[in-house]
Design a protein that fits this description.
Blueprint: E1 14-15, E2 20-21, E3 25-27, H1 40-53, E4 58-64, H2 82-97, E5 102-106, E6 119-120, E7 134-135, H3 138-157, E8 162-167, H4 172-177, H5 192-210, E9 215-223, H6 232-245, E10 249-254, H7 274-281, E11 288-290, H8 297-305, E12 311-314, H9 316-320, H10 324-329, H11 347-351, E13 380-384, H12 388-400, E14 403-407, H13 417-420, H14 429-443, E15 446-448, H15 455-460, E16 465-468, E17 472-474, E18 487-489, H16 490-494, E19 503-507, H17 511-521, H18 530-536, E20 560-564, H19 580-589, E21 593-595, E22 598-604, E23 607-612, E24 615-619, E25 623-626, E26 630-632, H20 637-642, E27 647-649, H21 661-674
Parallel strand pairs: 3-4, 3-12, 4-5, 5-8, 6-7, 8-9, 9-10, 10-11, 11-12, 13-14, 13-16, 14-15, 16-27, 18-25, 19-20, 19-25, 20-21
Antiparallel strand pairs: 1-2, 17-26, 22-23, 23-24
Helix pairs in contact: 1-2, 2-3, 3-5, 5-6, 12-14, 12-21, 17-19
């Protein structure tokens, strides 16, 4: 069997008439923060070039504003002058040198702009921005259209193969199209034709300006997933008009940023929204791109084979592995570093105004800084602990040419990942463990499972250096009754699977506390059952209501869980910016009582005695599960140093705060690059 035949639909070229895309994979738009950094364009060039070299057919940049009012934030990326075009040339040249194609996304933030110059169809403030937008005047609308057109033309001058016009996710064009945000009574509001006018004019005039041999992708919001969103018939009308206006391709946009429905998080099933693109294929004849939670070649191939779309857009998967397509072509999908949709180092960084990267691939967006050169003089290295930090260090160091022995006292690699993979909605961690297992084989690492090491053994084996990645130990509860039989640690629940009662108090509302609570209350495997997941989040596949929302069915029965924290801040405040609200909503749906400002008094046969706001309270529970933090587990360190061994401490053994896999993997990678 030829390699190409394994993914025949994914690897098939797409002829656009004036140009041909070499396969059906698009690297979707991601704003990574390099756009505004000093020297960022050279770093962006390296970032995109690596993905072009890896075989993706077409890259779409992060959103670039057509004018100052369209900024996402002050001094954000903008394309509105020849000077801007000249700066972008280093990016397009780098991509073309590697045989790739690249489109620049034109994004006007509208009322999502995090600045006082924000504008929109009407002066309706966004719930996720502190700035109330100014309603654009008729003159301002025409000027904005001209700015879109000029931006596309400057992109062409910069060497881009095309542009993507962002008409989705609740940004400016989407704001004009939906009655939720368009309260105008002139020719730009009211009727469907008037509300669609901005989108149509932007595409029409852009095509006239850039000519026929330039890719224009229009990102169409096919599911708004907000109250007052567009009805399906309106979406179809706009799609048909965009096709007539001269778009080359229509891309699928899912959900506004203010939507209370998860669309790309780990708990969202794979390919959860391709059905809406399939529905649109019956309405238009130009190629359609589908998107959201497509993260393996196998899933992409199935989506295309089922005729749900003509192309698939994958953004974060190309952060996780720039060689995604090259590995698919070589029938090496088992070696792909799969995106786990955690958002921790990509989207969360974006919302924190930090440079994006990737939890499973810390080299993403650091291609010019985190470099793994082959070693001239290989060392014999011992890595103690096969959790995230140990796995990252071992595989990167072995890839460089070091002789690596990886010791793990349990029967499997993964460390804390083996707990995370059991949490409903976090099954993608299985993929990370599969990737590391295959990397261990590929790089020739000597893996020693079920092996507890000591300084004498490591000294005897003659290791040049020892990397201690021994992880953490749970922090014990320091209150009266902490040794009561009803008290359990999260290790008891997630590793040892000890039975848990019907009424449970979880002490500690960090990431582990939320994970344990989710594990205890979620009885359905929603991540792998799309229809149940859609019902759970109130998404109407029949699209009977505008925005495609339907009432959520209340969850009945199940465990009664109390999630408690000492801090008086909002429970879950420390969770990820883009995923924390999902975890809180999920637990709220299961009637988990989240309580802050809690003082723990004692545990006895009656239950857990607490005080809140000066008032004593008894929680009559069957079990108390302790998720109250961790401390580094580094008892081996002293004996290693005493034996004269050179020791490096990484991961949880170094800093145990909240089991930070992002930091652990990066720390392992950085040490591997330097050693």
């Amino acid at each position: 069997m030829s390699t190409a035949s394994l993914f025949p639909h994914l690897l098939r070229p797409l002829d656009l008439g004036f140009t041909t895309l070499k396969n059906r994979a698009i690297m979707g738009s991601m704003h990574v923060g390099l756009e505004e950094e000093k020297g960022g364009f050279d770093k962006l060039a390296a970032f995109y070039a690596e993905r072009a070299k890896g075989g993706v057919a077409l890259i779409v940049t992060g959103g670039i504003a057509p004018n100052i009012a369209g900024w996402l934030a002050p001094l954000a990326g903008r394309m509105s002058s020849p000077r801007h075009a000249k700066k972008h040339r280093v990016i397009t040249d780098a991509v073309h040198k590697e045989g790739g194609k690249i489109c620049m996304q034109i994004l006007h933030s509208g009322r999502y702009g995090y600045h006082p110059f924000a504008v929109s169809a009407s002066n309706v403030q966004s719930p996720i921005s502190p700035f109330k937008p100014k309603a654009l005047s008729k003159r301002g609308i025409k000027s904005t259209i001209s700015d879109y057109v000029d931006s596309a033309n400057y992109a062409k001058q910069a060497g881009y193969d095309g542009v993507e016009i962002m008409g989705s996710e609740g940004y400016l064009i989407n704001q004009f199209f939906c009655q939720r945000t368009n309260q105008r009574d002139d020719e730009w509001g009211g009727s469907l034709e008037n509300r669609a006018r901005l989108a149509i004019e932007v595409v029409t005039q852009t095509r006239q300006k850039v000519g026929p041999e330039f890719i224009i992708i229009y990102r169409l919001s096919m599911l708004d997933l907000v109250e007052g969103g567009a009805p399906w018939d309106d979406v179809v009308y706009l799609a048909k008009q965009i096709e007539k206006a001269g778009a080359s391709i229509i891309n699928t946009g899912i959900g506004w940023h203010e939507s209370r429905v998860p669309t790309i998080a780990t708990s969202t099933p794979r390919a959860a929204f391709t059905w809406i693109t399939q529905r649109m294929k019956k309405e238009v004849s130009i190629p359609l791109i589908t998107s959201n939670r497509i993260n393996t070649p196998e899933v992409a191939e199935q989506v295309l084979a089922d005729n749900h779309a003509d192309m698939v857009s994958m953004a974060r998967p190309f952060l996780a592995d720039p060689n995604f397509m090259a590995k698919a072509m070589r029938n090496e999908s088992g070696l792909i570093n799969t995106c786990i949709a955690c958002n921790q180092a990509c989207l969360d960084h974006g919302f924190e105004r930090k440079r994006a990267s990737c939890l499973v691939n810390p080299q993403a967006c650091y291609e010019t800084e985190l470099i793994f050169k082959a070693v001239a003089s290989p060392k014999k290295l011992a890595v103690v602990g096969a959790g995230p930090a140990g796995l990252a260090f071992a595989t990167y160091a072995a890839d460089r040419g070091h002789k690596v022995h990886l010791y793990e006292q349990s029967s499997e690699i993964g460390g804390q990942f083996n707990y995370a993979k059991q949490i409903p909605g976090k099954e993608e961690f299985y993929e990370t463990l599969r990737y590391y297992a295959n990397q261990i084989k590929r790089t020739g690492i000597s893996l020693h499972l079920n092996t507890k090491v000591d300084a004498a053994l490591l000294k005897k084996e003659g290791f040049d250096e020892v990397i201690m990645a021994t992880g953490i130990t749970p922090r014990e509860l320091d209150i009266e009754g902490a040794d009561h039989k009803m008290v359990m640690s999260y290790i008891d629940v997630l590793r040892d699977h000890k039975p848990v009662g019907k009424r449970v108090a979880v002490i500690g509302a960090g990431g582990i506390g939320f994970d344990v609570s989710e594990f205890l209350v979620e009885t359905q495997d929603l991540t792998v059952n799309l229809d149940k997941w859609l019902d759970h989040w109130g998404i109407d596949k029949e699209y009977k209501q505008p925005g495609a929302l339907s009432p959520k069915e209340p969850i009945k029965g199940g465990r009664q869980v109390f999630l408690l924290q000492r801090k008086t801040t909002k429970v879950g405040k420390g969770l990820g910016k883009t995923t924390g609200w999902i975890h809180r909503s999920s637990l709220a749906n299961h009637k988990v009582q989240m309580m802050n400002g809690v003082s723990y008094n004692k545990i006895d046969d009656e239950g857990l005695h607490i005080t809140i706001a000066g008032k004593p309270m008894l929680l009559a529970v069957d079990n108390v599960i302790v998720c109250a933090g961790q401390i580094p587990f580094r008892t081996l360190e002293a004996s290693l140093l005493e034996a004269g061994l050179k020791v490096h401490v990484i991961g949880g053994a170094d800093v145990a705060a909240e089991l930070d896999a992002k930091r652990a993997i990066r720390q392992g990678a950085e040490l591997a690059a330097a050693i």
